[in-house]
Write a structure and sequence with these properties.
- The structure holds two protein chains of two kinds.
- Chain A has two domains: 298 residues, NagB/RpiA/CoA transferase-like (Rossmann fold), CATH 3.40.50.10420; 62 residues, no CATH class.
- Chain A is 51% helix and 10% strand.
- Chain A has 23 helices and ten strands.
- Chain A has a six-stranded parallel beta sheet with strand order 1-10-7-4-2-3, sandwiched between helices. In chain A, strands 8-5-6-9 form a four-stranded mixed beta sheet.
- In chain A, helix 9 packs parallel to helix 10, helix 16 crosses helix 19 and helix 20 runs antiparallel to helix 21.
- Chain B is α/β, with parallel strands linked by helices.
- Chain B has 14 helices and seven strands.
- In chain B, the strands form two sheets. A four-stranded parallel beta sheet of chain B has the order 5-4-6-7, sandwiched between helices. In chain B, strands 1-2-3 form a three-stranded parallel beta sheet, with helices on both faces.
- In chain B, helix 4 packs across helix 6, helix 5 packs parallel to helix 9 and helix 12 crosses helix 13.
- The chains are: A alpha/beta, B alpha/beta.
- At the A-B interface, helix 1, helix 15, helix 18, helix 19 and helix 20 of A face helix 1, helix 2, helix 3, helix 4 and helix 9 of B.
Chain lengths: 480, 242
């Protein structure tokens, strides 16, 4: 895959381009409204059938993650201990480059030149496929949507449904054009019927499943108490990758750890309902190290930081590490629904991406990252939908303050000058001479500073004859 | 009960009729509302754009203006939400325990208009007459920041002469978002255009909401489209009489 997010313009410009794509707008509106309706029905079902309703489940899920995050150092050492006792080999990676080097070295040590992959956000975050390609190792995505993205030399635009920006006619074209170049080609009479497209993908992937000697996965959860990794998926491709190869390498973000087996209970109920809008996902695979005669003979786990300890140090933002990558926040976001995921310039788009990218990578050094926390109306739909109660609007506002602070001391922008001027005027009511200066300031701000961007598509309201405060003073609050 | 009107900076400068409507409505309900002249702004534009230092003097002015009142009523869920949920952030930034205490004292007394009417005054029939076909947009901060729930609807349902039409996708954002409307103008317009279409499809002649900032955005789009739908603040509907 040569497509890259590197060098993407900041959100406003990237969004402007995407907003003009009528097919994208249509695909997104259809897909997000469908999945929103499915989720809403299941939340209502829990509301009616579980003690304390959906909110109690959310609280339990958040608490399970917080318990582990509060004692992350101890949980990780415990995880290493249990995994090792189960016959797995644990590797520690500070950043993407270390993790990629570890995986590449393991693949090479087994003389392999290809791996099959379970859908995994973390391996996209670290650019594993590109790093392996540079070492002459082919990484085959086996999740249907990831396959579509990979064959289309495209970029993912959604956490759960990375090809959400494609419709089935486009998928048919991609399959016809690209499948034959990297393996078994699509049949010439391929139609755009979903079952026909899925059958073509199945045929294409089957030879890769049976041939590959190394599988690569992420993990949805890692249980410290038992040394168990968990992958949830819908298509069975994950189960194939986790059981057929001789060697299994799992790259796991350190925030994926939970303390106990019981902690999985609320999380495994929250995730499929919030994610695909299902009561239960079709495949839940759990493995605890090596089981002789069953599955991979060699199991490696790469525990990855890559900015997670930076996020953990952020008092307001650390709750973002609860994220279970369900993408409910994307599906309800008014911004995401119009722009799609590519405009966010990261494998983590939408509201969670708007906080995760700055939290993992820091602010004040990239215009692209610094624009992300502003890519939100602060409508709060994301917080409402989040199954682990991440207060995304609160973190967005906090990240905005950190971005402004990071740029203090330099040449002030027109916005910074306006804010300072407003602060002076608004902060000294006694110097406002009856408030009229303030009112004039407000009108000036509305009509001059914001006017060009505002009036491109919106009329401004007519200016009133007098301000409210002048009316109050003139009429004694309407009494005369 | 000493009640202050927090008119908000936007209403003061651009929509004095909304403030006048709150005054008329509350007087009709027997509340002698005062207007502390020292008030300026809730500081939300600074806070939500990331300018916390700049929000500190604005918060000082806010707590000075509204200290000592039993209730502070505002025709803006967004500004009420800022006072209730964000002023503590600014006070912490200032590192000033006195300011923190003053903000903590005022914050819980700030009410959005429909909350004050239903919860503090215990009324849903305010004696209004508004013979128009109306649809109602529940703003995001009223729904998800304050949780006003169905209070505005209950108030509107009691207005004589008013026909209330259902707005499909009502709970979805209009795309205003404060400085978002300017910083991400294209996306803001795209979201708002969908909201305006939903409003037009209802066939209503008036779009009502509890926040003039959202209405300026949706109304600006409707006006540019020459849609023939006007936007009116909830307070003005409730203040109207035969």
């Amino acid at each position: 895959m040569s497509a890259t997010f590197v060098g993407m313009p900041p959100f406003p410009a990237a969004a402007r381009e995407k907003l003009a794509d009528a097919q994208l707008r249509r695909n997104l509106a259809h897909a997000t409204s469908t999945i929103r309706a499915r989720r809403a029905a299941l939340v209502a079902e829990v509301e009616a059938s579980v003690d304390g309703g959906w909110e109690a489940l959310r609280v339990a899920g958040a608490e399970a993650k917080d318990t582990a995050l509060r004692s992350l150092d101890r949980q990780l050492l415990r995880l290493e201990e249990t995994l090792t006792a189960n016959g797995a080999t644990v590797h520690w990676a500070r950043d993407a480059a270390q993790a990629n080097a570890i995986v590449a070295a393991l693949v090479r040590a087994h003389g392999a030149d290809e791996v099959i992959k379970v859908k995994s956000m973390v391996t996209q975050e670290i650019g594993l496929n590109e790093a392996l390609a540079a070492e002459g190792i082919a990484a085959w995505e086996t999740d249907l949507a990831e396959l579509i993205v990979q064959l289309g030399d495209d970029l993912p635009s959604h956490i759960l449904v990375p090809a959400i920006h494609r419709n089935r006619a486009e998928i048919r074209e991609i399959f016809l054009r690209a499948m034959g170049e990297v393996g078994r080609g699509a049949p010439a009479d391929l139609t755009d019927a979903p079952a026909v497209l899925a059958a073509a993908a199945r045929e294409h992937l089957r030879e890769k499943f049976l041939r590959a000697r190394v599988g690569v996965s992420g993990a949805n959860f890692a249980v410290a108490e038992t040394g168990t990794l968990v992958v949830v998926e819908s298509e069975g491709n994950g189960r194939m990758c986790l059981t057929l190869p001789e060697v299994l390498i799992s790259v796991v973000g350190i925030e994926k750890v939970v303390a106990t087996w019981d902690d999985l209970d609320p999380l495994l109920r929250l995730l499929p309902r919030s994610s695909t809008g299902e009561r239960m996902n079709p495949y839940t695979s759990m493995w605890s190290g090596v089981t002789p005669g069953d599955g991979p003979r060699e199991v490696h786990v790469v525990l990855l930081d890559n900015g997670r300890t930076r996020a953990l140090a952020d008092e307001v933002g650390r709750q973002a590490l609860r994220c279970i990558r369900c993408s409910a926040c994307l599906n309800v976001c008014p911004v995401y629904e119009r722009t799609g995921g590519h405009a966010y310039g990261s494998v983590y788009p939408g509201p969670i991406g708007a906080i995760l990218n700055p939290l993992l990578r820091g602010v004040g050094h990239s215009d692209q990252i610094d624009a992300l926390p502003y890519a939100s109306t602060l409508c709060g739909a994301c917080f409402e939908a989040c199954p682990v109660r991440i207060d995304i609007p609160r973190i967005l506002v906090d990240q905005r303050a950190k971005i402004v602070d990071a740029h203090r001391g330099g040449l002030p922008t027109p916005e910074a000058v306006a804010m300072r001027t407003a602060a002076t005027g608004l902060g000294s009511a006694r110097r406002l001479a009856g408030g009229e200066r303030f009112t004039r300031l407000g009108l000036w701000f509305a009509r001059r500073v914001g006017a060009p961007a505002w009036t491109s598509a919106r009329d401004l309201p007519p200016a009133p004859a007098e301000s409210f405060r002048r009316w109050w003073k003139r009429t004694d609050g309407g009494r005369r | 009960m000493r009640v202050a009107l927090m008119v908000t900076c936007i209403n003061d400068a651009l929509f004095p009729r909304t403030g006048q409507a709150v005054v008329a409505l509350l007087r009709r309900l027997g509340v002698d509302v005062e207007f502390p002249a020292a008030q300026t702004c809730c500081a939300q534009p600074m806070i939500n754009t990331g300018y916390l230092d700049e929000a500190v003097p604005v918060l000082r002015a806010f707590v000075e203006a509204f200290a000592g009142y039993d209730a502070v009523v505002t025709p803006s869920a967004s500004c009420a939400g800022c006072a209730r949920h964000q002023h503590a952030i600014v006070a912490r930034r200032a590192g000033d325990p006195a300011l923190r205490a003053a903000a903590d004292a005022v914050s819980p007394r700030v009410y959005e208009l429909s909350e004050f009417l239903v919860d503090r005054l215990g009324v849903t029939d305010v004696g209004a007459y508004y013979p128009h076909t109306v649809t109602y947009h529940p703003t995001c901060h009223s729904l998800r920041m304050l949780g006003v729930g169905d209070r505005p609807r209950r108030l509107l349902e009691q207005v004589r002469g008013l026909t209330l039409l259902e707005l499909p996708g009502a709970a979805e954002c209009c795309g205003f978002g404060g400085t978002f409307a300017v910083k991400n103008a294209d996306t803001s317009i795209a979201i708002g255009t969908d909201k305006a279409r939903q409003v037009r499809n209802t066939g209503a002649e008036v779009l009502v909401a509890g926040d003039n900032s959202c209405l300026t955005h949706i109304g600006g789009l409707l006006s540019r489209q020459r849609a023939g739908v006007r936007t009116v603040h909830l307070a003005e509907v409730l203040a109207a009489t035969a």
